[in-house]
Amino acid sequence: MGDWRPLHQVEGYPPIEEHGLVGDGATCALVARDGSVGFLCVPRFDSPPLVCPLLDRQAGGEFRLVVAAAEEGRQRYLPGTAVLVTEIRSPAGTVRITDGMLLRAGAVLEEEAPAGTGTFLRMVEVLHGRPEISLSLEPRGGATVHPTGDGLRLSCPGQRVEVALRWSRPLAAWPAVLRLRAGDRFWVALQWEPGAGAPTAADPFADTVLVWRRWSAALHLEVPRKDLVHRSAITLKLLDHFANGAIVAAATSSLPERIGGDRNWDYRYAWVRDAAYTVFALRRIGLPEEAGGFLTWVLEAVDTPGSPLVVYDIDGHAAPREIVDPLLSGYRDSAPVRWGNDASYQVQHDVFGEVLDCAFQWAATGGTFAPGLWGRLRALAEASRDAWARPDHGIWEVRAPPRPFTYSAAMCQVALDRAARLSRRLRLPGDPLRWEQDALTITRRILTDAWDPQMCTLTEHLGPGSGLDASLLALPLRRVLPADHPKMAATCRAIVARLDAGGGLLYRYLPEESPDGVGGTEGAFLLCSFWLVDNLVGQGRVEEAAALFERLCSHANELGLLPEQIDPGTGAFLGNFPQGLSHVGLVSSAVLLGRAAHGLNPELSTHAWFR
């Protein structure tokens, strides 16, 4: 268990970093170090939130186990699991709360099948003393409460869902005040699946712990910081929709990228862009089934008429249109709160390369393509031949007028390169020679049209008047340019100099130089710093890369979880949390450093190019 830390709030809210994540492969919840639930949607990740006090401490509802006069708290996970333990200390005694979403006995998490029971179980144990504990559930927008034999049934019109509360011993009133003494145990179960039964085992978490530990024992980790890589793998699994392999970008919506700003987005959906990065990372640490499940989901989602979308809901449909919630004030008054995401309807040409790279990885694992699907993939490759030079909204989904982003052009190169390789290796119909030539043309144009000789760097878009963009650090990861190519190495130096946020942290870009149509500033974007680690390894600067990796790992909270962004001034977490791509970045950098430690060629350098 970690050190005891004072419980505190900032402007009435627990800090984002003082939360843990629990889930069951259909939904998830954030649990704070003070015992409150900050965000919970049922029955799925993208359902309207049952409670979201992180987005409004008054109007967001609550699900709380509160220890009176609590002073200190600490959190840990049961090893190898997603079962969270929170200990809270007050002058009257010490309480342990164990939180988890229950899984079916014998569930196999590698299978594409639901594993949860629709039960969020919270168990309270008094370790010493006689603390007073308050228990309450108030769904956002209110609910109609119906007493039952062993608890309550709540009808929640705002969420269009019914939930049940069960508890292990009778309560005199609701909300309840528990007066327990050392050795006493009490549990409360929130259930949303019809027919879910009450926990009956002496240890109601036992089956769930066994399922998680059987799954996590398969991880192969010859890497630095195995503890954080292991926790990152479990976190990515918690963002996985077990039933079909979709992986949501983050557990939450609208946690701000700047306190008081309006850079607040809904990340409870699956981005195709994330697929290739996530699949690559999962395969490297011994999770081929999860990688294959996500690849299957991506290819099924895009195997429909029309252009592929940038982001889908977990069913493979367009994410819902973005709306602003006028009833919630936002985390620390950072409005607006948004539901849905309009990125589904943006033009982002990098999606061609993202899809073809997923297909390439699918083939690398032995996957095959039905004629109709290969026909769709061929069409995407052909579309990328013209799209690469046209303006779009780019990887960062700007809301300013489109520009011919360098990253988007690079991903069109990836589309053509991967299509050519697939056609040759699998003897699929197509024109691999022309695709290879077109890919080479795009690479040359990037090296000329995106190069700024005065700044001595590649820039964010093709043509003059362009700013710096940390997404260029991803070009070696996507095999567009080697990390040690002179212009790529110069770009890396320029990004470190111009986008530095201190301590190895990087900004994605500078909005004053690269207008994004949103306005204001944001925090440092963690994924970009992990990309920097990868580039340093590819340039043979392994000691520098390892030192930077350790600095980045130090930003993880006591549970090993990472946000989207970091406030460079305070170290506080910003953006949606936990953020899948931040954990993907940690895993990928650890794998590259592990290879380097074993004397293997840096995969992103010219020495191992396209091996």
UniProtKB/TrEMBL annotation:
PANTHER family, per database record: GLUCAN 1,4-ALPHA-GLUCOSIDASE, TREHALASE
GH15-like domain span: 225-589
GO MF annotation: an example: hydrolase activity, hydrolyzing O-glycosyl compounds
Record-linked Gene3D superfamilies: 1.50.10.10
InterPro entries assigned to the protein according to its UniProt record, in alphabetical order: 6-hairpin_glycosidase_sf, 6hp_glycosidase-like_sf, GH15-like, Trehalase-like_N
Keywords from the named record: Hydrolase
Full protein name: Glycoside hydrolase family 15
Start and end residues of each Trehalase-like N-terminal domain: 14-88
Pfam family, one: Glyco_hydro_15
Any Gene Ontology biological process: carbohydrate metabolic process
Transmembrane spans: none
